Amino acid sequence: MFATKRRTGRKGHGILSFRFDSSRHAISINSYMKEQRDLELAEGVERGTASGAAMDQQAVVQHLVCKPSKRNITVIFGPVRDFIKEIEATMCLQGKRCSLHHFIHDFVKHHFLDSLTFDCNKKLENATKSEVARTTASDQKTSKIVGSKQQVLNSVVVVWQLVEDLRVLMKNLSLYSPHFLQIMISLLERYRDSCNHMYRELTWVSEGGGGKTGGGGGGGGRTGGGADYVVSSKWAKDPDINLKIRLLPSWQRLYGNSPHPTEDESKLVMEESQLLVSNLGRESLRKSNVLLDHNSFKLLGILQESLDWFSGHLKHLVMELGRSGAGVLATDGAKMSTMSSQYYEESVTEQTEGVPLDLTEQLSKVQFDFQALSETTVVMLHLEVRTHCFYYLQPALHKVHYVFDPGNVGEDQQVKQLASDLRSIEMVMSAVLTPEKLRYLFDGLGHLVASIFIGSTFFMRKISTHGIKKMCRNISVLQSCLSKITLIREKDLDRARRYYEMLYLNDEEILHQMYEQGAQFSLQDYSNAFKLLAHSQPVFEADNLQARLQALNTFFSKDSV
């Protein structure tokens, strides 16, 4: 009934099915045509024949010789400075400065230096603002680039890059060397404080036995029952103990000085053991007194290697600044660090202007602070390993009655724990410390352990033959452990074993042995042995003990004459 209007077909071409303007061929053609237009525009600008329409702002911006940056002044400063001298000589300004000089000076002092200071502070903040940033170590590739044998902290790499950058700027913009040096000193002082903070956090231990590596403020606001700095950290900063430690031949070997003669070496090691035993031998240590977290051990090792590497490079920089009394920096960046060739390309080789002496002295002081913290850290690790020996051995050895059944003559549980702990420390620290420093941690440890074993008879009232056998087993376990770590037989522990085997004899037999073979132990050691043997008898005879002690004193008095 109703009819629809018939649809008429489209005139001309049919419906468009495909477009090819986005195909790879069309894109290539368009790119080629754009490059040709840009090339023609560049040639026109160079000849001065380019049309006004072509020289719009967008086209000109695309053909700048370099990206806009305040750092461009470091490249053009030398040529512009020479150009300013020519202008002022031509204009005969008679001591006055041309406007270009004022412009450049104002730009450097109020724009470039401000921007540089902000950038440096920002990079330092990013490298140290969090626990993760502070404690992250570099990978093997980065360590190789910076010329370090061991892993170093990423933060120390960042700071050294900033120092190298400022050193190069001191040459390229030599008129402003004091300003760059002041920025450098400020950065180093802040980083020094950050490293001190990290050291304090790693050596602060709660009663649970774990080191605190979290961020936050300094140590002054930390409270809590049983939390304190570890004993080794306190001792490492004690001047008397520090001096005694630095006289040891192991310290002399570590820092490249001539070691003491052999006859003095054993005497110095004995003095260290006596010092530690006299301070810790009668003191009961808590978990908060020792660093049981091996991850904190590792971080302290990385911190020590980082500071050692960093202070060495800073010392070289101080020497370069003070050379010839004129503060002249070396023009060869490779003399400063292998990092120079990796991160910087020095285009200006003019010498720096004189650097004020007070700034050089400030830099030298900061360098000394880094070196001092580095040495304090390695001394602390040296003492911490020894503190662990007291922590584990005292509960096992300071027993009033060391009497056991025949079936219980194996090593004490605490001795097993100490052996396991020492092996773990050696494994962890061998990955982060140089072999020389690893040796320093364990050098002389056998003598200390032997002294602890021998001195423990002071606390005993009774010991049985099975107790003597158990003690000899303890000594053998630790001797085997230390020999595998140090790769030498710890003969001092042989001496400790002979001391306890001597207790199988009675006091008269011991005196007879002394007259035949001479004294092998000290007067105090023999006195402790005689008292222990007397109290271990079924009936204690005080008169007999007094007579034996008198005979002992007579022997040593004759021997000393």
Automatic annotation (TrEMBL):
Family classification: Belongs to the SEC8 family.
Coiled coil: none
Its job: Component of the exocyst complex involved in the docking of exocytic vesicles with fusion sites on the plasma membrane.
GO terms for cellular component: exocyst
GO biological process: Golgi to plasma membrane transport; protein targeting to membrane; protein transport; vesicle tethering involved in exocytosis
Matching InterPro entries: Sec8/EXOC4
Name of the protein described by the UniProt record: Exocyst complex component Sec8
Keyword vocabulary terms for this entry: Exocytosis, Protein transport, Transport
Alphabetized PANTHER family for the sequence: EXOCYST COMPLEX COMPONENT 4
